Each structure stands twice: as C-alpha cells, then as structure tokens.
Amino acid sequence: MARIRLDHVTKKYGSITALKDVSIDVKDNEFYVIFGPAGAGKTSVLNLIAGISDPEEGDILFDDAYMNYVEPRERDVAMVFENYALYPHKTVYENIASSMRTKKYRQPEEVVDREVKRVAAMMNISELLERKPTQASNGQRQRIALGRALVRNPNVFLMDEPLAHLDAKLRNSMRKELKSMQEAFHTTTIYVTHDYTEAMSLGDRIAVIHEGSICQVGTGNEVYYLPETEFVAKLFGDCEINILKGCVTEEKGRTGIRLPYGEEVYPVPDDVGERLQCAGVKDVDIGFRGWAIDYSREPRKGYVRGKIYTHEPLGNKVELTVSLGDDMIRFIVHVDERFEIDEAIYLHFNMDKGIFFHSETKEYLVRHNEEVMRGGGKNG
Amino acid sequence: MANLKLQNLYKMYDQGNGKKDGVYAVNNLNLEIEDGTFLGILGPSGCGKSTTLRMIAGLEEITKGEIAIGDMVINDIHPKERKIGLAFEDYALYPPLSVYNNIAFCLKANKVDKKEIDQRVRKIAKTMKVEELLDAKVEGLSGGQKQRVNIARALVRNPRILLLDEPLSHLDGKMRQILRGEIKRLHKEIKCTTILVTHDQMEALSLADHIAIMKLGVLQQYGTPDEIYNDPVNIFVADFIGEPPMNLLPVTVQKADGGFCFLLLDGTRIKAPAKFHSILEDGQQYTMGIRPTSIVIADEKDYDAQFTVDVFENLGDERIISIRILEDFLTIVIEDMLVFQKGSRIYVKMKEDLLYLFDRETGERVREQGQRNGG
Amino acid sequence: MRGNMAKTKQTGQKLNKKPMNLRLRPWLIILPTLVVTLGILYPFYQAVFYSLTDYSLKKPVWHFVGLKNWLEMFKGVNFWHSLWVTVKYTIAALVVEMGLGLVIALSLNRKDNLFTRILKVVLIFPLMVSPVIATLLFKLMTNSSVGVVERFLNLFGVYGFPWTADSSTALFSVILIDTWVYTPFVLLLILAGLQGLPKSPYESAMIDGGSAWFTFKTLTLPLLKPVILITLIFRLCAAIQEFSIIYSTTKGGPGDTLMNLSLSAYRDAFTYSSIGKAVPQILVLWVIINFISSKLVKAWLKAKSANNG
User: Where is the ABC transporter domain (chain A) (predicted)?
Assistant: First the structure.
C-alpha cells in the first residue's frame, strides 16, 4: 500500500497527446476509479503508474519516492487484466503461491504457506485451496485471482476494465463480488472503467477523465449529484440527463425560472435563488434527471405539454422519449401504465431536484440541498 | 393481407456428408402471427431463433412442417418470390456499392424503371433518415448508419413481412437507444408485419407486441411482454426476462406460526404468502423467485424477512442492496434516497403477487391451488 | 511504503531521463536483424558497383569506366529488342493466365460436390512440377517423331508443327508452357479469394432477386479486385523475369527471338563473361518491377479498404 501521485503529467504518443497536465492524488488504501469514455486516456494513466511507459513531462510518485523511469518490476505493482489467467493445472494454493515463487520475489516456504492462508481467509476461499480453479464458481475465481495479486502486498493494485467483456448478468454479479471483497484488500487500488455503474459502486473516489484531462475528482455522490460540468453530468445515469435552457427572473424578491415552453415562471428554492442572484446570470442550463421529472396524462397547472415520441416498456418500467418544443426529453418511469406514440403528455420539472449550470461555460452553478446530496441521503 | 403461420416446424442440420446430425435446431415450433403485428423471437444463442428466421426467409431448408402466409404454403417458394425483407445481423451491405446502389440493388436486379427506382429509393431513405448518405460508400458508415441502410434496403422491396435479425446487438449504448425508438416509430408508420430476433430481452420487451421465448429449439412461452414478465411459465423464462434478473433461490418449506415459511440455504426464513398455503407441505423443496424491485424496505414491526446487508451500491438512478446467501446474492432495488451500511440489519416485505415458486427439478412454475401450468 | 516482500531497488531520487542501459536496449535487440539485412543487401551494392567497371571473369585486371556500360546499353539495339521481348512475353502470359484462372475459379466455386473437389486437386498438379521438368515434358510431347501432341495434330492433317524451332511460333510455344505451369497458381489464389468473400451479401442478393450475371458484375467483381490485383503483382514480377522456361527450350533462340532481359544478361555474364555489361540490364529490370509493383500495391491497398463495407 502506498500513496500514489501523478504530478502535472503529460504523455504523448508521437503527435498525439494522450494526457495533458494531469495530476492525481490517490490516498493510501483508497479504491480509486478512473472513469471516462473510450480513448480518454485511462489506460495511459495505468501504464504510467505501472512503468510500462514514461511521461514526457511531470512526475510519478509512490509515497515520496520518484518513480520516473523506474522499471516496472522495481515498482512492485500488481496488475490484473480481464480474464485473470489462472493456471488451470495447478491447485488454488499453487496459484496463489506462484507469485511468491518467482526468482525475484522468492520467499521461504513457511512464509509462503502463512501468506497464502492469510490471503485465502481474507478472500473467503480457504475451503478451495486444494481444488483446481475449474471447479470454482465465477465469483470464486475472481477472488482467487485477486488473492494471487494481493498476496505479494504490492504498493498498488491496478485493474484495467476487468469486467468489460462479460455479459450483463455476469458483470453485475462480479461487480457485487468485488465490492463485497473491497475492504479485505488493504491495498491502494486503481480501477479503470468506462461503465459508470462500476465507478459509482466501487470507487471511494472517481476521477472523470476526458480527452486526456481530468474533469472532476469526487465521490460517487459528488459526480452524480454535484457534477462540475454538463459533460460530467451526462456521463452518469442510465438515461442521459436532460439539459434545458432557462431564463432567470426576479419578482418581488423571489427568484424564478422561465422555461422555453411557455410563460409560466417556476419558483426556485432559496439557496438556489441566492446563488443565482450572486452569480448575476440571466440564462442558465438546468439538468433534470428522470426522477426530477413528473408527468401527467391530463393537463395540469405547472405542467407543459409535449408529445410522446417513443415509449419502451421494459417490464416494470417504461422509458419515455417526449418531444417538447425543440428538445427531446428522455426519462424512465416506474409504472405499469401503457402509452401510445404521438399521445399528448404533460411534464413538470422539479426545480428543487435540478442541477443549474452556467449557460456559456457549462460549469456547475448550484443545486438545492447541496450538502444533503453530497452525503447521498438518509440512513436506512 | 394475411397472417403468418408456422406449423409443426422442425429443422435438423446436415452434417455435410448427407447425414443429419440428430439434433433439432428447431423442434416442433407452432406460432401464428397476426398481420401487422410485431413479434419478438427471444432466446440465448443456439436456441433456434435465427434458424427460424432464415426458414421464413427461405435461406434454410425446412426439415418438416409448414410455413404459410394466409392460405399459401411457402415452403418451396424461392426467397425472392416470398415478398419478405430481411435486415441481416451483420448488415450484409454490398461493400463495393454506394448507399444508393445498395438500396437500389433489388430494384435494378428486377429491371425496374430508372425513374421509379429513384423515387422509391429516396422515399425510403427519407423514412430511415439516410438521405444525406445516399452517395456515400458503405465502408465509412458508422454502425448505426449501416443498420439504417440495412433496414432501408429490406423495406424498399415493399415486403409483406419485415425480418430483423439482431438489429441492435452490434451497436453501442446510445445508438442502441436511439435506433430502438426509431424502429418502434417505424413500425407504427408502416404497419408491416415485423419479426425481430434477438438475445436481448430489453429489445424484445420494448418493441414487440408478442414475444416467443425459445430455448434449444423449443418454444418456452408465447405471450405479450406483460405476460412474459409478470407470469413466467418456468424458471428459464423468469431468469431470462427482466433487468436486473429475478432472484432465484432454492428454498425448503417449513411450518411456522400458523402458516409456512421458506427456508433459504443459509437458514434465513421468509414468510410464505398466504396464497400458497393450500399447496405447501413441510419439507417440500422449491425454487423461489422474486424480482429485485418487488422487495420493499419495511420495519421490525411488520416484515416478511430480515437480512444483513452485504453490499450497498448507490448507482444514482437506483440503489442496490445485495445480501449474500452462500455463493449467491439476493438483490433488492430501491428508489428512495436511503443509505445502508455494510453489516446493518434490514427488514423487508415481499410483494405477494410477485413472488413465484418453481419446481426444483423441472423448473416449471408452481401455481396456487395446486394448478400446474396450462401451457 | 511497504517492502518486506519485494526488494525494490529504487532510491526514490528523481531520474531526469531514461537510464542509458534502458535506452540502448531496443537497439541491442534488433542488432542481429540489422546485421542480416545489411548482409543480404551486400551483393546488390556489389552489383551496382560492378556495373560501373569493365570487370570480366576472364581478365585478371579491371578498371573503373563510369557510365560507359550503361550508355552503350541504351544506345545499342540489343537492349531494346530484349525489352520488347520481355514486354511481349509478360503481356501474353498475364492475359491468358489471369483470364483462364478467373473463369475456371468461378466455375469451380459454383458448386461443392465430389466432382469439383477432385477437379480442384487435379488442377493444382502443375504447381508441383518444376518449370524445367514441364519444359522437358513439353518437348517430349511435341516431338515430331514420338510426341503425343504431334500424333494428335496429325489427325487434323497438321504435320511437323515447328513449335520452338520457328521464330513465328516460338513465343506461342513458351507461353503455352508458362500457362500450363502457372495458371494453377492464379486459380488457387482466386479460388481462395472467392471463398473468403462474405456470404451474407450473397444471401441478400438472393432475396433481392439478382441473376447470376448481375450479381457477378455488381458484387463479385469489385469484391475480387484485391485478390485479382495481388495475383497480378505476383505473376507480373515472375513473368518479367522469366528465365527457366525459355532457357530450357531455346536458350533465347531461335536466334534472338526469345531473348528477354534476363536471358540477355545471363548470356553477357556467363557466355561473354562481362559482368559489367550484364548488370545494367538486371538493374533496369529491377527498376521496372519496383515501379509497376508499387503502383499495383497502392491500387491493391485501395481496393482492399474499399471492400471493408
């Protein structure tokens, strides 16, 4: 375990800049997720930490030691790839012990035995030690592979999209297994993924990376409820967040928003109104996730009229796409109702659940109840 | 306009040396599809869905049985005479030709008048939103664009039946969502009988009027999406449909305070719904099914079961509580903004009508009042 | 930072650039390959050098003569005659072999049964025979006293067809041999190409109602372009330099009829022992082949990418 730092790192491949002035600070024992779309630079970061490539500018530090140009095998990192590559002809015990029997890291047998048993207990696979990996379930195999990587007590544990090519069902259960084992790691872990559910579920903190730069670093709650830019907001959530344009109005001391679909002014909560007045903006972008939108089949006060463009029933929920003015609003409703294409539908946007962005810079301005959302909600 | 009927349909593949290999890829399939409706044939790979589609198209020989459109049996009719349009899974576009010529291929091959070709191609290109691509070569197109051209080409034939072979499987998340909506609107607009084949239950649920689920060549269940989702006839269907998948746990029946309870493998007890009381007996073994969304958080005053939280995930749009039952997880999906700690105790209630029982050996659904499935 | 398992060697101090041993490593790894490559190219450099001298295998002393050999070659008649023979041979061989190979491959590809499978094997036989042996067989079969072909032609009232003995029929005869030896090669490549074509566009074409000719014209031919081009590249490079067939039949004769550039260079080098005069002809061949094949490779790459729809 170690604190891992990237300090103003730039990485180029020929004329392509993969990483631009990137700084990352991973705390000791933290489970740090690097999240971004394909090609954003995630694997580059991992390669720099592992020592597979070297930065053009900037420093790599493990605790306070500089790792620039240090060979990968000197850095003591453990890297886990997709299919884990367990040795099928060796027992689980042998598999885990294998990393302690290589020439470089050879340990005496009593130490090997002690460590293997310790890790097996940690990963909950003690009963499997004498079996072969093929006799283990998927979840167990994942734990064996993790155990093999962790038994060396590496400085940092690197995982590059380990669940990427599994089918949806397996991906879900492996993710839960991983999370279940997280606490037992006792190692700084850096996990790369393009799947936002993995990022939110597993990460203590998430670094959102796009086109070689870090957009935001925060907990799952922070990136989801308090995204720093519209771009980050769009990356999280099953249905992409709906961004609407609004006009800030001031009437009798009360701040309100007018949407481009009608004359109605919607009042905003005090904390939001204060911040909007402070910022002095006239136009804002407001992001509404599915649960911030209410709908009605009948006209209602405060609801704007739209037309159902398409509806997709998915069992116990329906994914609706509503055409409203020039925009397409997409959201999921958890009901058992039936809808028709081109049917009229009335939508209401909850200002206290919306996220307000600066209309030009696309940066975060405010939302209602910031602190509560940072915490994620009440205890159940 | 007429219905499509598949009657006692069988398909066995040739081993190549003239001998059949003994396994039915499609085994006694019977389906009737009403004119203008949207049918989804759903199942894992190897279940016979693509084979069925290809038999309807005429690309595979029928081993036994009949396919008929209206009164006309089409078993021996050449594909080009069947008036079907097939959108291939790998798009099967003509690589050296432009988009325009891909769509026009069929019309040119049949020596249609040049003016009419132009009219029809442009009309269908407009419907499928590929007008600006007409002069482009197909190699440079994105997956979504290729799929539109694929479907446009199938439609320009003015088919009686439109066949879609896994239309969304090779597309990424966003494009998949967009195209799904477009196919839905397309069907409403052109009202053509459509058959979609897929392994993705989400596609079938969202697009089809009726779904036929197949496994290893055998039809498991045929019904509306609602029926398939809420009233599965066996474990295979219950497990296959629904995202996240249904919790399926082996249980043993136990007598308990004036009723029964289900004993999970790790000893946890779940109160059995009253509707099952008449058929339960102490010691029986079943597989219990309940969807993650059918379990609600309750309190210690009134609950059906209590669990210890193993994993709590906040995924933004929904929150997932996972409880470890030996090697499996029991999953609960909640929408309220609550936070749970690992190791904390929770009390839950199960929605009675949405709790299912399946026979341990056959996997068949066990219904209340001792009734077995009517089929 | 923990270290009781791993003995990490870093000092923790910052390194400002990659250590020398790491930077040299890539070069050390490819060193053997570099050496071998330079070794292979050495005779080439030698050849170019000798073309600027009057080096002869018969004389002990040689002198540097600059471009004299080259200028004499271009000014003389022999070079242009040899070039013309080379061109005639190449075009004739290519046209016949590509056409024949394409037609046979298309017919064989239509059906897959026992007959076509046997045919495929039989038609590849000539590839296993060396060109020299093929030439010998040809000479035997066309022999005016005992040849099978001679007997066959007799049935039609043709006696004593001169084959390679007469300059008007010599080219025809060697092209015949070349065709027999190399058409299977063309056939093989095109068949492989046909079998590598994607199947589903053809299924779509079947549903679309395309006739065999229409489908061939609009779909197959463009799709085959890369394979046809690559076969052309191979055959072209080989036909331009063809040596063994012509040498084993007539050594370039009768007279100079079949003296292409390869044979002419051979004669200069080994009959007249003047290396300096032989090399320029070979180098000209090299330039021609280089130029044409690079154009063809470009066309091939373009055709390949166009087909990735």
Answer: 4-236
